[in-house]
Design brief:
single chain, 212 residues, alpha/beta, TIM Barrel, eight-stranded parallel sheet, 8 helices, globular
Length: 212
């Protein structure tokens, strides 16, 4: 299991320090949630912050766009240093166009699904995308409770992706108590916020995730 700590749970007064702390703890990726306050009920950070943090770490930047029109911002976030850009199938942009745009920039493309969106919505784009993200909380805020009823959707998507060399990511309430469950249902990348950032020894939590 790859581990992508969510910077949404980091120290917003010193995000650079939070990035370095996760790298030192053994994180594989760094999950950056960009929320516009319209698509989801929160406002986080944008291009300037991503660009600034890119200078602070060489971790793989796992960018999650929870915004209305992702197509409009692909170039800006690619220039800022994203390694993968994940957008929502529920956004107003055409999914195929967004994936194509991301790939023209030489980076990976992911598609995310809200809890209320069926697996079938992403099926036409599985061969195009590099990663599918199953949200196990409603988009917006860190610290929410894990939604175990998303496991059938996760399993379905992972079965569709079998043999296709895809990343299957889960995001929302992921911790040591449910990491085995999500792994059993096909996830191979785990986003974790409070469980990692609030741990006294985050390296131990990340090591535990890496066992799956």
């Amino acid at each position: 299991m790859l581990v992508s700590p969510s910077l949404l749970s980091g120290d917003f007064s010193n995000l650079a320090s939070s990035c370095r702390r996760m790298q030192q703890a053994g994180a594989d990726w760094l999950h950056l949630d960009v929320i516009d306050g319209v698509f989801a009920p929160n406002i986080t950070f944008g291009v300037p912050v991503v660009k600034a943090l890119r200078k602070e770490t060489d971790l793989f930047f796992d960018l999650h766009l929870m915004i209305v029109n992702p197509l409009k911002y692909i170039d800006a976030f690619a220039d800022a240093g994203a390694d993968i850009i994940t957008f929502h199938i529920e956004s107003e942009s055409d999914p195929a166009a967004v994936i194509e745009k991301i790939h023209t920039r030489g980076i990976k493309a992911g598609i995310a699904l809200k809890p209320g969106t069926s697996a079938e919505a992403v099926k036409p784009y599985i061969d195009m995308a590099d990663m599918i993200l199953i949200m196990t909380v409603e988009p917006g805020f860190s610290g929410q409770s894990f939604m175990a009823d998303m496991m059938p959707k996760l399993k379905t998507v992972s079965e569709w992706c079998a043999g296709k060399d895809k990343w299957i990511q889960v995001d929302g309430g992921i911790g040591t108590g449910n990491i085995e469950l999500v792994a059993q249902n096909g996830a191979n990348v785990a986003v974790s916020g409070n469980s990692v950032f609030c741990a006294e020894k985050p390296q131990e939590v990340i090591a535990d995730f890496h066992r799956y």
